[in-house]
Amino acid sequence: MKEDLTGVQRIYAHHVLRGSATFEEVPPSIAELAERHAAILDCGLPFLAAELRGELVGYAYASPYRPRSAYRCTIEDSIYVAHALTGHGIGGALLRVLIARCESGPWRQMLAVIGDSDNAASVALHRRYGFRTVGTFAAVGFKLGRWIDTVLMQRPLGAADTRPPD
């Protein structure tokens, strides 16, 4: 995956500079992305890459939702696809595999924190894979000259809340 970080940086930089899916406003360096990547893997969480004809066209990962121990069974997903290839099933393929990998681990809930309530494609993608909308934070970010909402979605994993964690 480390060799793919140049592609990750290219895809993410587009979303940072031109989109509302992330609230970052300055694209992180490859070194910063490498640190983030290592932190995700250190938690035992998956970081996936999608390639098409040898080029990285999308990536997805799960990360801890919050650092406090009571949240240890809750994770958050992130999915980014090359701008020119959105709507071609790459995000769905990544999310399907990400969910399957996470269901084989100790996690019980997956959250999607979707930047921009106008991001209908991301909301629909998550809904197709079993997420339900649990709320919206209105106008919590200001980017690209406007206020942006955050849509919160949730999906149970594995045994979910039917028994205590292992």
Verbal overview:
This protein is an alpha+beta fold and 166 residues long. The protein is built from four helices and six strands; from the N terminus they run ααβββαβαββ. It has helices spanning 5-18, 30-42, 90-103, 120-128, and strands at 47-52, 55-64, 74-81, 109-115, 132-143, 146-156. It has a six-stranded mixed sheet with strand order 1-2-3-4-6-5, with helices on both faces. The radius of gyration is 15 Å and the shape is globular. It starts with a helix and ends in a 10-residue tail after the last strand. The mean pLDDT is 95.
Entry summary:
This protein has 166 residues and is an alpha+beta fold. It has helices at residues 5-18, 30-42, 90-103, 120-128, and strands spanning 47-52, 55-64, 74-81, 109-115, 132-143, 146-156.
Topology:
Elements: H1 5-18, H2 30-42, E1 47-52, E2 55-64, E3 74-81, H3 90-103, E4 109-115, H4 120-128, E5 132-143, E6 146-156
Parallel strand pairs: 3-4
Antiparallel strand pairs: 1-2, 2-3, 4-6, 5-6
Which labels suit this protein?
alpha+beta, six-stranded mixed sheet, 4 helices, 30% helix, 33% strand, globular
- In quaternary terms, these chains amount to single chain
Strand order of the largest sheet: 1-2-3-4-6-5
Low-confidence runs (pLDDT<50, min 5 residues)?
Answer: none
Helix content: 25-40%
Largest sheet: 6 strands, mixed
Briefly note the structural class of the backbone: alpha+beta
